[in-house]
Amino acid sequence: MVSDPSLSSPITVSVVSHGHGAWLPPLLDDLAQAPAGLLRRVVVTHNLPAAPLHAEGLPFELVQIHNPRPLGFGANHNQAFARADTPFFAVLNPDMRLRDPGLWPQMLVAAQQPGMGAVTATLLNPDGSVQDNQRALVTPWSLLRRRVLRQPERRVDWFSASLLLLPAAAYRVVGGFDERYHMYCEDVDLCLRLQLAGLRLARSAATAEHHAQRDSLRRWRPLLWHVHSLLRLWCGVAFWRYQMQQLTGRGQR
User: Fold this and answer.
1) Which residue range(s) make up the domain with 185?
2) Residue 19's CATH number
3) How many CB atoms are located within 10 Å of the residue 7 CB?
4) Cα 85 to Cα 172: distance, rounded to the nearest angstrom
5) Count of structural domains, the chain
6) Segment (H or E) for 247
7) How far apart are CA 150 and CA 143, in angstroms?
8) Is it the case that residue 23 has pLDDT exceeding 90?
9) Does 5 map to a domain?
10) Cα-based distances in Å from 226 to 46, 95, 127, 155
11) How would residue 140 be classed by pLDDT, with cut points 50, 70 and 90?
């Protein structure tokens, strides 16, 4: 357990709700358990119409954004980053439970290391099994290997944006999320661009519980977004530059 990490390096947390009203109060309660002074501001973006949350008694500033129209994943978090004046910025899904008291201290210690681009934690399913939030580069073959052949990942090239902690300077230097991705693959693209900028990815030993909703496997609109984002990723400059970097042995390993 890391005691009293540098509280001069507080965090802004960004949470985007798509009708997750029932999840938000317990999530705010979990966030309120972080060491005093570690979380300065929590920005909750209501991407769909919702009642305001109660902020009384919270040990951090709660900022609520009510979008007049829904925005994409990256656009929402970039909008929240514009409200951040802290040295660290966290992206957090609303369907999370943060029961590990060492989560934020341990992630912050890792994020403070020189050359760090993004830090994640081990995400657990409600039954305690480990989620696949750390994956190899998304290619047609890797999708076949993981989804059809059920083979484990052989390397880690990107982290899911369900939970990420980034130095604000790293987020700023790569321009945040690419808003051309409405949903899906924006975290792949962000992690590739961070590494192409010479920054590293790291996982802390902390854990968080994620009640993941695989909408792209159940509904046609998220599935279309997923396919569109995959095609954009595979046609993108970052994807091919990263591939070439790995082939020539210059990857940040």
Assistant:
1) 11-247
2) 3.90.550.10
3) 13
4) 12
5) 1
6) helix 237-247
7) 10
8) yes
9) no
10) 22, 20, 27, 22
11) confident
